[in-house]
Amino acid sequence: MKKKSNNHSNTICLNKKAGFDYFLQERFEAGLVLKGWEVKSLRAGRVQLRDTYVLLKNGEVWLLGAVITPLPTASTHIQPDPQRTRKLLLHRQELNKLIGAVERKGQALIPTAMYWKQGRAKLEIALAKGKKEYDKRETEKDRDWQREKERLFKK
């Protein structure tokens, strides 16, 4: 039997701004509780993770601010809410670690990527600490220097 070749990437979307605004530390993989129309929209790539965050409430983890735009072919008997709060699924050990880090250390939980894994949508969240303005300038300066270095080595 031949294996199916996957020429497409498993990545649905990335939150590129997260690395610029935060120092990303430990990363976790969480499952998402989605509705049928949301899965179809994810397959079409109609999702945005910019300005999203993760909230811990009553021992559960919730994704806020993610926009999943419904397809125009969504069913007529439902009213899709593109920015609804979605529940995240984590193991109890991971959840306890996150609760401790957020409450004691004052860190934030930021979604960094959404991807497919064995046919299921997964969200990568990272423990993050906010960057100050001078940190952002330093990051930009380092990135520009790396780009310039690559140009010099090419010649």
Automatic annotation (TrEMBL):
Required for rescue of stalled ribosomes mediated by trans-translation. Binds to transfer-messenger RNA (tmRNA), required for stable association of tmRNA with ribosomes. tmRNA and SmpB together mimic tRNA shape, replacing the anticodon stem-loop with SmpB. tmRNA is encoded by the ssrA gene; the 2 termini fold to resemble tRNA(Ala) and it encodes a 'tag peptide', a short internal open reading frame. During trans-translation Ala-aminoacylated tmRNA acts like a tRNA, entering the A-site of stalled ribosomes, displacing the stalled mRNA. Signal peptide: none annotated. HAMAP family: SmpB. GO terms for cellular component: cytosol. It is found in: Cytoplasm. This is SsrA-binding protein. Its main location: cytoplasm. It comes from Thioploca ingrica. Pfam families: SmpB. SUPFAM superfamilies: Small protein B (SmpB). Belongs to the SmpB family.
